[in-house]
Amino acid sequence: MRPGARLGIDVGRARIGVARCDPSAILAVPVETVARRADDEGGDVRRVLELAGEFEAIELVVGHPLSLSGQATASTADAVGFAERLARAGARVRLVDERMSTVSAQQALRSAGKSSKKQRPIIDQAAAVIILQHAIDAERASGTAPGRTISVEEGP
Question: Stretch 125-139: mean pLDDT, rounded?
């Protein structure tokens, strides 16, 4: 297992959920929900990079939304594009399969007694926790980093 904190990123059309893990990469916890920027000023990327610096993250683990059959979805290009923006800004970025992360987050919040209305502000963070926890658990079990690295030169 590679030591070092990581950020988990759940990219949505309106919001970006951010989670982090401890430097031992044992437990993921929610951090913040960042508003997506419709313009190209990059405030969303800047905020994620600020959080990465604050937590001394060795990499950003971005959820790669695929259908249950493994095919691209309407959200795939958006998430990959955001991951590429992070990589171009100098971050080390890894795309990991996030199938069912939002559904799992919704179920967990519902089980905790949160109504759909109360879930809205935190669902993205909960999904980011699930993405990151799955990634660090998979790395611990296999001994290999999960997903794939985004290379600025090559693209996804």
Answer: 93
* Alpha carbon distance 155, 114 (integer Å): 39
Q: Please, is 4 exposed, middle or buried when counting C-beta atoms within 10 Å of its C-beta (0-12, 13-18, 19+)?
A: middle
Per-residue pLDDT tens digits for 95-128: 998 765 555 656 665 676 665 555 566 788 988 9
Contacts of 136 (CB under 8 A, 6+ apart): 1, 6, 21, 25, 26, 28
What single-letter DSSP state applies at residue 99? Answer: T
Q: Are strands 6-11 and 28-35 parallel, antiparallel or unpaired?
A: unpaired
Q: How far lies 134's CA from each of 6, 23, 53, 65, 144, in Å? A: 12, 16, 22, 14, 13
Q: Return d(Cα 79, Cα 16) in angstroms, integer.
A: 10
Amino acid at 65: P
Q: Are 15 and 34 in contact (CB under 8 A)?
A: yes
Backbone angles phi, psi at 21, to 5 degrees: -125, 165
